[in-house]
Here is the input.
Amino acid sequence: MEILFSSMVATFVIGLSFGAGACMFTCIPTLGVMLLSQDIDAKEVARQTWRFNAGRMSAYALLTSISGLVGASLVGLLDIAHANWIFAAMLLFSAVVLWRKGKVVGCSGGARQQVRAGLFGMGFAMGLRPCAPLAGVMAASAATGSLASGLLLGFSFGAGAVVVPQIVFGIGLGKAGSEIRSQLVGRQQQLARIGSSVLALVGVGVGMGWVSL
Here is the structure.
C-alpha cells in the first residue's frame, strides 16, 4: 500500500508538470477557442473546462487501468492515427454545434447537452493520444499487474495534469473572456462562427496529420 501511495504521489507530480507545460498550450486552439466563442459567464466557463478535463482524466484512467489489467503497456498497441481521427471528429462536431447555435446560453437543453458532450469528447479523445509522461505511467501500471492500481495511477496522473489548465482556463479565461465579450456586444454570432471555423480547421489538420497537438 505504501508503494502504491508513493507511486500515486509521483504520478500526480508528473501530471502536474505535464499539465503546466505542453499540455496547457495544446488546449489553447481547442478548449480556449470553444470557451471564448460562447456567450457564457465565468461560472459556466469553469464548468465547461471541468467537463473537458474530466474527459481527459477518463481517458488516462482507461489506458492505465487496461495496462494494469493485461500486465503490459498499451503504447505499442495504440494506433496514433486512429486516436487522431477520433480527436478530429470531436473537434468537427464541436465546430458544427458552435456554428449552428451561436449563443449557447440562449439555446435549447438539447443543444447544451451537445456542447457538454463535445467538450467531454474533445478531452477524452485528446487523452487517448499518449505522450511520453503518460506512456511512463502506463508502463508503471502494467508493472503492478492490477486493474485497480492502474486505475488509481491514471486518476492521480490525470488529477495532476488538469490542475493548472483548470485554473488558467476555468478561472483566468472566465474572467478575461467576460471582458473580451463585453467589447464585442452584438457580434456574438460572428465570434461563435469564427471560433467554429478555427475548430474545423484544427480538426481537419489533426485528421490529415498536418497538425499535432
User: Anything to note?
Assistant: The radius of gyration is 18 Å. The CA atoms of residues 85 and 113 lie 22 Å apart. The chain has a mean pLDDT of 83.
